Amino acid sequence: MPVLPAWVRSAAFWALVYSYCFLCACTALIKLFCSILSRPRETFCRVHREVTPSCLHDPALGTHCYVRLKDSGLRFHYVAAGERGKPLMLLLHGFPEFWYSWRYQLHEFKREYRVVALDLRGFGETDAPSSKDSYKLDCIIVDVKDILDSLGYTKCVLVGHDWGGMIAWLVAICYPEMVTRLIIMSFPHPTVFTEYILQQPSQLLKSGYYFFFQMPWFPELVYTINDYKVLKDLFTSQNTGIGKHGCRLTEEELEAYIYVFSQPGALYGPLNHYRNIFSCLPLKIHQVTMPTLLLWGEEDAFVEVEMADLTREYVQNYFQLSILSKASHWIQQDQPELVNNLIWTFLKEDRFCTKD
């Protein structure tokens, strides 16, 4: 079978992207009109939140710190636990999350690590540049490198969940000398993701929000409807929520998420991460060379479990895959004790070796 020219394949890819983007936007628009017709007053109702939930200032979780990077000039916010000088464990959150999604890990690993939970560029209290191009993955990867330099480290245990998992994979590929061990939750190797999503319609549907987020301003509006109902449902609904069989968010914890993302302009930066994803995929370099742990929830509503084992092909070192029974997408919050135990076991493993 003849191989299509590169420009034809590229044109077909972008036709798919924008066609599906249009379809997702139409679906969201229909839902918005239905909400306006059935609940006009509630649709655009938003609670004005000024008081920071007290759980975000729990001293047991660590110390709130800020660092301004020399090259970008951006100020980053992070929460750090554990003594300075201990090995660094750097935690990268997903969407719609921020540093607080690592609260269980901050408390657990501070015994042996300097644990740093970062607010990524555009999230939480970290600066949010106004240009969409400022959120290209190249920029985000360099952020992680510069954060290590600013913290006085050259290496770390790198942990990423969801979108933070995507970033962690890319950091491990681009700067392998910086990552001693890689721990990923709920996201496959980027090459597996891009190939699988184009071959499996079911995963394409589950990843519809990637395409929807390509639209300007409209996704931000949708998230604010009915006082951020979309955000609340992501964490609490029967299909996608935290704690069907594990820990549940308390009312205060849920309010912490709503508080952070309801601040003026707080959704613009996070969604711009997704608006740049198609500019860097597929990858030119694929292989990961450090020991890698991949954790996956059996009941993840956003990424199909079949991608987890396919990831093994791209790790040229010890690779451990653990699929957690009955766990959701929000795995480190849903099953924190089990996740922490699996991480400890992986970190203390002494038989790492390079594959033949």
UniProtKB/TrEMBL annotation:
Pfam families: Abhydrolase_1 (PF00561). Residues 87-333 form the AB hydrolase-1 domain. The keyword Transmembrane helix applies. Keywords: Hydrolase, Membrane, Transmembrane, Transmembrane helix. SUPFAM superfamilies: alpha/beta-Hydrolases. The chain crosses the membrane at residues 12-34. The keyword Transmembrane helix applies. One of its GO terms (molecular function) is epoxide hydrolase activity. It comes from the Eukaryota. InterPro entries: AB_hydrolase_1 (IPR000073), AB_hydrolase_fold (IPR029058), Epox_hydrolase-like (IPR000639). Belongs to the AB hydrolase superfamily. Epoxide hydrolase family. This is Epoxide hydrolase 4. It comes from Leptobrachium leishanense. The lineage of its organism: Eukaryota, Metazoa, Chordata, Craniata, Vertebrata.
